[in-house]
Structures are given as C-alpha cells and as structure tokens.
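#dry-run=false #mode=assembly
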Amino acid sequence: MSLRIIELEYQVQSFRLGPINLTVNNEYFVLMGPTGSGKSTLLRLVAGAHRPRKGRIIINGMDVTTLPPEKRGVSFVPQDYALFSIMSVRRNIEFGLRARGYPRDHIDKAVSSIASQLGIDGLLARSPATLSGGERQKVALARALVSGAKILLLDEPLSMLDPHSRMEFMELLKDVRRRYELTIMHVTHDFEEAYSLADRIGVIMGGQLRYVGDKETLFNEPSDVDVASFVGYRNNVVDGKVLGIDGLLFIRPEWIELGTGVLEGTVITVIDSLNGFYVEISINGNRLVAFSKRRPKVGEKVNINIVKHHVIKK
Amino acid sequence: MIMENVSFKITIFLGFILLLFYIFPILVLTKVASLSVFHAIRSPSFLEAIEVTIIMATIASVISVIFGIPLGYFMARYDFRGKYVIDALLDVPIMIPHIVVGIMIVLAFASSYGLGPILARLGVSFIDTLWGAVAAVAYLSSTYTVRTIETAIRMINPDIELTARTLGASQSYVLLHLVIPYIRRAIANGAMLSWSRSVSEAGALFIVAYYIFMGKSTIMPASVYIYESYVGIGLTNAAMYSAALILVIFIIFVIYKAIIGISHVASHN
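#status=ok
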C-alpha cells in the first residue's frame, strides 16, 4: 500500500500549504509539526476533505486527487474519534458496510470478527456516550478497519487519553499495523508518541515539509535550526563558540555532564522531572540545559562536560 | 456588595416587567372571554376556520422542512464569495411588512407580471385558494426552519461527516443517515416555529386569501375570521374567538412539547 503526494499545494485564506512531496510506503509514518503548521490540513487533503490547488495524490498507483473521500481507500480517524453518538457501537462499526450495501450476513460476520479481534465484543450494544476513552479508540479503530481501507489517517489519536490508555493504545496501533499490513499516517505534536510509533517521521512547519526521514537522525542530528528548535524545547541550539566551533550546535540535555569538564557555568534554574533534573546553566552568556541525576543549587558554580554535539549545517 | 445585590434585584425586576407585559393582555382576554370560549369552539364556522388554518400551516411547515434541509445544509457547509447576499436574502421575508409579502405573492404567482398566465393555463390559481394561502405563509415562515436547521448543522463537527465519508458513505447517504438523524430535534423545532408563524399570520392572507375556496364553500383563515368579527360585531365578540384560538394553539403546543419531551428521554436510554 503506498501513498504518494506530488507537488501538492493548498491555500486557505492567508495560510499556504506546500508544495509538498512525500511518499509513504507500507510503514508507520508520523507527521509532526507545531500548532498551525498545516499537518492536519495535509491529512484532510489526503482524506479528501478539501480540493488542492495544485498537485496530485496517488494511492496505490491511482490518482485520487479529484475522487470523493469514499472512493480513496483511506480511513480517517479524528482526534475525538467522531463516534456517531446517535447510534450503538454495533451500528457505528457497520456504518460503512451498510452504506456500501453489503448483505446482512456479511455485515454481521465482519462486525463480530473485528470486534473479537479488538476485544470489544461486550461493547456492541452500548451507546458511545457510555464508553471510556480507551474503549472509544478501539471502536473507532474497529470501524475504520472493517471498512477494508489499508491506509489509516490518524489525527492526534492519543491526545485525549490518560497516560495508561496511551501506552496501551500505542501497542495496539503497532500490533494492528503489522497484523493488517496497514500504511498509517499519524499526525501529532508529541515527541514521545512519535518516537515510540514511527518507522519514519516528517516535520512540517509553516506549511512546508522540513524533514522526512528516520527518527534517530531527527532527534540526534536535526537538519536545520527550526527543526532542531522544534524537536524539543529543552534541547539546546547554541552558538558553536561555546566549544570553539564555527556554526550552530545541537546538544541534547543528556549529552551534558555536570561536575566534570573544563567549562564553567552558573545554575539559573532547576526543573524537576520524573527521572532527574533539567538544569539551566549560564556559560559566558549562553544558556544550556543539562540533564542531571543530582539536584544542584540555584546560583551554584558547576563544571560541565559536553559529551556529544551535532553541528547544524547552515 | 449590598449595592450590587440591590442593582441585581432591580435588573431581575425589569425582566419580570417584560413577563408581566406578556401575561397581562392574556389575562384580560381570558377574563373578557371567560366561558364564552366554549361557545366559540362549538361554532361550526369558527371550527372550519381553525381547521383550514391548521391545514394551511401544516402544509407550509412540511414544505419548509423538505426544502429547508438542503438549503440549511448548503448555508452551513459551503463558503463562497457573496454568500452574505444569500444570507441577507433569507432574512428578507421576516423583515418586510407582511402586506408586502401578500402583494409580492399576488404579483409573482397570480398576475401577468409573473407566473400568473402559466399557472392559469395549468388550472392553478393562487387567489383565494389553499395554494395561495400556503404560498404566502410558507414565504414568511420557512426562514425559521432554514435558520434552525442551519444552526443545528453548524453544531455538527465536520470531521464526523469526513469520517463517515472515508468509511464508504456517499454525501447523500451521510446527509440522510447521519446528519438528519443528528438534527431531528432541530428539524422538529424549526417545523414547529414555522408552523406557529403560519398559524399567526394575517397580513399576507388579507391580500392573497381573505377567503379560501374549499370545495363549494368559502372559509376564512382564523386570523381573518377574528378580524371580521372585530370590525363586524365588536371587541367582546372578537375576544371570544381570540381566546378560543389561543386555547387551541396552546393545546397543540403542549402536545408537541410532550411528544418531543418523551423522545428526548427515550433517546438517552
């Protein structure tokens, strides 16, 4: 299953998206970007909600740019899952099959099969309003899968879940992708989520795709300053002069060791986290965030050692 | 704090003055008409007038729903240059004097300036007929249905429709099997608003259908009937029929609310 986006352009009021070129091929692709970057718009263009101004969308070799959403072979799952509150879970799942006029026995078989695979047999008679967040997710997924689409378009599907359900659902998504051989395009602004799920990641900023590639490169060797600044607010993008290097440096907090090294700085702030402390240090007017297991005092003079850095190409 | 409390009480009191302004005329009418209401609702000619008024309003209301759903959907979901012109046009029927609406209906459907000759050839007349009456009140009242439906559709997240489409449903399937069920209560409310507006109409009917030919007899719509009784016989006579009309409409409203209320409870179980 492949999705190809070629020279795609779209404009709504003053916001311009594209030109976008992207190929997503039988993989879990996560599209990241800040709010208003156009990531959800791109997803909706693929789903068929809007007509692009220019360019083409090819799904499995077929140009679907002008086809209506129901003829594209994609399934869209929005942030709030869009379960139809006026009908039961069973009716929700069979909605697409009924719309396409499948016979009753086919529908019944398909619904019981998907319900047992996702473990939601017990929910079929319930109303969506009575379901928990995790259950809603599973119903939305069952409904998308039963329609037979091999490309899933997920718009921030984990943002409304509690941490426990998030972990559980991430595992389910990975499992479902393998089992049904799906191509998934997943939009999010959450790094943990992206890192955990993605085979490849794309970063969209200001309507332009700024990065497409593997996640290790993105989180360790970002290609430009904007992308580097986006991939983590605690990551450091600093002038190379700190280390006597020409250019900009990208340094993750865990690449900075406290207590050793020749560089000297002053602790400005300390932020507690579950695994340790993010320590903001001022060094000759530059601010660096280090990750430390020890909690230094604010105002304390510390020596630091930059174990690793990445030079961002200008 | 005490001052705030006093000014808040004064504000609420202003609201009650408005409420009193609504209720007082009804009270006086009820007192003047009192038991003669039962005399009025036993009068065959008045019952005929109410009957023809209800038939007229019901047909207009059904028409407003059938055509109002597509128009409301269009207004809620499509954006285009100059949309505000259509938006303003939709409000025209409720902004102009209803006598003017009557004149426009006569001009458009019963005179040589409009479709009069064509309709005459087809044997359809709009003057003093049920068709004319329905056209006049539908023109005035369908805006309420369209606006109610439009507002309800705007409340549905467009993602719901997009999701349904990608599941394999066509746009018309989504409208019939998803959007309409979602807004069924708004449709009922819009239809009822439009119905009540039609029942209460007088001005346009003075021009288009002062009498309505029904078979061999001529029947006046209820509002015209009451007007006739006022100018022909007098205030107390008109009061009697007015109170009777209010009573009938009130009963219909209570029944409607009860049905809607029951379905509301049912939909949550």
